[in-house]
Amino acid sequence: MKQCFRSDDDFVRWLRLFNGFYEHDQKWTATRANKLHIDEMGREIKPGEIYYKQDLGGPHYFKLSRASMEKLLSLVFSQSQTMPLLGGRLADEHDAERLAMSKRSADIMDQVHQRMGLSSVK
Question: At a CB cut-off of 8 Å and minimum separation 6, what does 59 contact?
Answer without folding.
Answer: none
